Amino acid sequence: MPQMCERRWGRVIQVGGGLALQPMNLQPHYNASLAARHNLALSLARDLKGSV
């Protein structure tokens, strides 16, 4: 992130499915990791909004 902010250009791309928002009843640890990744993307987007 610091390098992208210095260049004032960059993209963060995350690929995921819907299990972060609609978890299945198996593998709760996997569902939690997907939700964490989803929330990281949202937090970054909000934090960096308008910086480029």
TrEMBL record:
InterPro entries registered for this protein in UniProt: NAD(P)-bd_dom_sf (IPR036291), SDR_fam (IPR002347)
Gene3D superfamilies with a match to the protein in the record: NAD(P)-binding Rossmann-like Domain
Name of the protein this chain belongs to: Short-subunit dehydrogenase involved in D-alanine esterification of teichoic acids
Organism: Streptosporangium album
